[in-house]
Design goal:
By secondary structure, the chain is α+β, with helices and mostly antiparallel strands. It has 27 helices and 31 strands. The chain has an 8-stranded mixed sheet with strand order 6-5-9-3-2-12-15-14, with no helix packed on it. Strands 17-18-19-21-20 form a 5-stranded mixed sheet, with helices on one face. A 4-stranded mixed sheet has the order 29-26-25-31, with no helix packed on it. α3 packs across α5 and α20 runs parallel beside α22. The structure holds phenylalanine and zinc ion. The site of zinc ion has 4 residues, from α3. Zinc ion binds next to α3.
Length: 849
């Protein structure tokens, strides 16, 4: 049940819990519809608290009895929790509740997935398991007994005793309840071992359902690499005797860092060459690393309250991106991250859902697991490291781990260690955490008598609740090139810490060409009056791989905008530049493939609407098709040669090098198929022995509308594999023509294999529709209606996944009045549903404002 007016929670209202929890004992008697949870918790008054009210969170629990110090009590119960009279001093609270995992479709708390029991407690799911102070600053050791007939019974920490139909676990590290986990089922272990840097032997397992046991090896290698990397780079060692990972088919997010028992969406851990693409492998490696790294940044040091979410997420995303850069190609990783940041985070920051990296209010915390908290949160760490340098970053992190181990910390604590180590005042820098919106950085240049001057100005547009923006500290990595393309000034960091600031260089022989924001040194929108000549020059000469890519991307953008706005033909300079890139064997294939990619249609939309132009999704789509055809024609002779050169011999390996070759081959095939009617793609599909080649060929064929036979062949081959079927669902939507996308998605939702209760399948189908820019925004409005219909269906079943997908509507203000009206009508139709979840209603209310 939901209150009439959901409450807003404010950062400024933080107060500590009135009690400390000394230890927690839990017993689970598992049964699908009647699991009993018996708890014994020792409380003591918190000397730091001002008040003494004994309130425990608890939702949808059937309380059987409760006792304090062994005597029965009759607490008062509301839909949010339990209040009781308690004695002065320390006391023991006990209770027994009944819950129903089998009917728990929200996938929060204890639930069932494919016959196994599992839990998801972040952020506030533990309160659906038993009565407890479910807040991250309440930390305790846990002893857990699991009783059930299942061969595998798991919880956090180290195994204690076990016997027939029970197992006991003890977690010696105090933790908040959101890190609690329990898993039970008929699972198969993929075991391994790891010796830590101090010589401790750790047992490792990946637990999966029968049939998935041959998809664990890659994840296990990734785990061991992550453990080694965190020892080498951050000096962080694992701290339990055992580390378990479990793959679960029904999961709202990617994965969860529960102490010693990470729970993964099966799509983020299971991998095999036949069923997973190169991109899947890379993502799995990164997510395994991410969850493992949380053991220190998140678990040993956790968050005081949920406003501090970026403390663990921003830092852990930053750490996993460093890991991927070390394992693979640093520049390819940086370029991919920036593409993702611009696609998702900039859209969020520029619309009604904009919020600071550290928000100061929320209604439903689940709605704040966002690109801003995660990805921009990681960018902020990267900027901090750029500003203080690698050595001081390392010192500050050592101090952070030393000082705050065992704490529930804040962003203030985090910045404090940097201030102490460097002697800097980070007050202005802190605005990156407290102020929403993407700064626009404009730049003017002048050159006279060998003196060169760059003047930067920063401006951040208003965001909800923050009309005025103060200037932030922006680290600008800059290099200067002379007209021959030689570097006259190697990369240096300019600290832009005012609204406007100039930087000067003297003694230059001629006017240099600036390479600004190398490596994308700050998450800003660079506004520079420049021309295609300079862009082409940087594309050819810049020594910074990111800015080389960026120059190509800017060229593509200016070409496309000119086509969209003025009906111009594709720019010949761009086509020549891309042909040169394609032929440039000194560039690694992955980088070449990235350079050949075009800006996304939603990015073009944002650029147009920032310029005050109302974007037409269909016109944007057509311009992209026209440009791709022109590229194919211009590169006609070279494409087959590159395709042939990039064939990988021998057994499949997901490593960066062969994956990069395949990526470039696929890019060449995609362009070439616009001229050969899909002939070469059909051949690739027929001989493919791995998923990367198979699905990329299928995508190309579907786009050419010549892939019907392959599509049904693919279904017959893979209908037994849930994760591959997700691809089959998603691909048909993303490869559809704009006018067909909604209809195809609609048909797929009627397919017998469509299961809206499974978040992966739901996202594969309807998420693909929302991501198909011209299809979702097709003027028929069918995309909007279909998505709204399904959000209405899903909300009572799974509010979290519903609310996350509402973000598809966040860009409505960019579009023409007709589309705006259609979108708002759908938003209002959802909002008018009786008993709409707090999650969804908060999202739509914010989107509408
Ligand atoms: N904490 C998880 C992560 O980033 C994400 C998550 C949040 C998972 C909430 C489930 C629920 O790794
Ligand atoms: Zn995380």
């Amino acid at each position: 049940m939901r209150d009439a007016a959901p409450q807003t929670i404010f950062l400024k209202d933080y107060t500590p819990f009135d009690y400390i929890v000394q230890d927690v004992h839990l017993t689970f008697k598992l049964a699908p519809r009647a699991t009993r949870v018996i708890s014994r918790i020792r409380f003591a008054p918190n000397p730091d608290a001002s008040d003494t009210t004994f309130f425990l969170h608890g939702e949808q629990l059937d309380l059987k009895w409760a006792k304090i110090n062994g005597a029965d009590i009759a607490p008062s119960i509301t839909p949010e929790g339990l209040t009781a009279e308690v004695p002065e001093g320390a006391f023991t609270f006990e209770c027994e509740v009944e819950i129903s995992p089998e009917t728990n479709t929200a996938l929060e708390g204890l639930y069932m997935s494919g016959g196994m029991y599992c839990t998801q407690c972040e952020a506030e799911g533990f309160r659906k398991i038993t009565y407890y102070p479910d807040r991250p600053d309440v930390m305790s050791t846990f002893t857990v007994r699991v009783e059930g007939p299942h061969p595998v019974l798991l919880s956090n920490g180290n195994p204690a005793t076990s016997g027939e139909h029970f197992a006991e676990w003890h977690d010696p590290w105090p933790k908040p309840a959101y890190l609690f986990a329990l898993v039970a089922g008929d699972l198969i272990a993929h075991p391994d071992r790891f010796t830590t840097m101090s010589g401790k032997d750790v047992e490792l397992n990946i637990y999966v359902r029968k049939g998935d046991e041959n998809k664990c090896a890659f994840g296990m290698e990734a785990l061991k690499k992550s453990m080694t990397w965190d020892e080498k780079v951050y000096g962080r060692e694992y701290d339990l005797d055992i580390f378990n990972i479990v793959a679960v088919d029904d999961f709202n997010m990617g994965a969860m860092e529960n102490k010693g028992l990470n729970v993964f969406n099966s799509s983020c851990v299971l991998a095999s060459p036949e069923t997973s693409t190169d991109a899947n492998f890379e993502r799995i490696e990164a997510i395994i690393a991410h969850e493992y790294f949380h053991n220190w940044t998140g678990n040993r040091i956790t968050c005081r309250d949920w406003f501090q979410l970026c403390l663990k997420e921003g830092l852990t995303v930053y750490r996993d991106s460093q890991f991927t850069s070390d394992m693979r190609s640093a520049s390819v990783k940086r370029i991919s991250d920036v593409i993702d940041l611009r696609g998702r985070q900039f859209a969020e920051d520029g619309g009604p859902l904009a919020h600071p990296v550290r928000p100061d209010r929320f209604v439903e915390i689940n709605n704040f697991y966002t690109a801003t908290v995660y990805e921009k949160g990681a960018e902020v760490i990267g900027m901090l490291k750029t500003l203080v340098g690698d050595a001081d970053y390392a010192k500050a992190l050592d101090l952070y781990f030393e000082r705050h181990d065992g704490d529930a910390a804040t962003i203030e604590d985090w910045l404090q260690v940097f201030e102490e180590v460097t002697g800097r005042n980070l007050k202005r820098f802190k605005r990156w955490y407290t102020s929403a919106g993407t700064p626009q950085l404009s730049v003017k240049e002048s050159f006279k008598n060998g003196r060169y001057k760059l003047t930067f100005r920063q401006e951040t547009p208003p965001t909800p609740g923050q009309p005025q923006k103060k200037p932030r500290v922006i680290p600008i990595a800059l290099g200067l090139l002379d007209e021959s393309g030689a570097e006259v000034l190697p990369t240096q960091i300019l600290e832009m810490d005012k609204r406007q600031k100039s930087f000067k260089w003297k003694g230059l022989a001629s006017k240099p060409v600036p390479s600004i924001l190398r490596g994308f040194s700050a998450p800003v929108i660079l506004k520079r009056d420049t021309d295609d000549v300079e862009r082409a020059f940087l594309l050819a000469h810049d020594t910074d791989p990111f800015n080389r890519w960026e120059a190509g991307r800017e060229l593509a953008k200016s070409t496309l905008l000119n086509m969209i706005e003025n009906g111009a033909p594709p720019n010949a300079g761009y086509l020549d530049g891309m042909l040169a890139v394609l032929r440039d064997d000194t560039l690694d294939p992955a980088t070449r493939a990235l350079m050949l990619g075009l800006p996304s249609q939603s990015e073009l939309t944002q650029t147009l609407s920032d310029k005050g132009v109302v974007p037409d999704p269909q016109a944007i789509y057509e311009a992209v098709q026209t440009l791709k055809l022109a590229m194919a024609q211009h590169m006609q002779d070279t494409l087959p040669r590159v395709y042939a050169q990039c064939q990988v011999e021998g057994p499949y390996s997901p490593d960066a090098e062969p994956a990069g070759k395949r990526e470039l081959a696929i890019a060449a095939l995609g362009l070439g198929s616009r001229l050969d009617g899909g002939k070469a793609a059909k051949e690739q599909f027929a001989r493919a022995d791995n998923m990367t080649l198979q699905i990329s060929a299928l995508a190309i064929l579907l786009r050419q509308k010549v892939g019907d036979a392959e599509l049904s062949g693919f279904y017959e081959q893979w209908k037994h594999d849930r994760l591959v079927m997700d691809k089959w669902f998603g691909l048909q939507v993303s490869a559809a023509a704009p006018e067909d996308a909604a209809e195809i998605a609609d048909k797929l939702t009627q397919h017998p294999d469509f299961d809206h209760k499974n978040p992966n399948r739901f996202r594969a189908t309807l998420g693909a529709l929302a991501a198909h820019h011209a299809g979702f925004h097709h003027i028929s409005g069918r995309g909007y209606t279909l998505l709204a219909d399904w959000l209405i269906t899903l909300d009572p079943i799974n509010p979290q996944t519903t609310a996350r997908m509402c973000a598809a509507f966040q860009t409505w203000k960019r579009y023409d009045l007709k589309r705006q009206e259609m979108i708002l009508a759908e938003v209002d139709r959802i909002l008018a549903q009786p008993n709409l979840s707090r999650d969804t209603s908060e999202m739509l209310t914010r989107i509408r404002s």
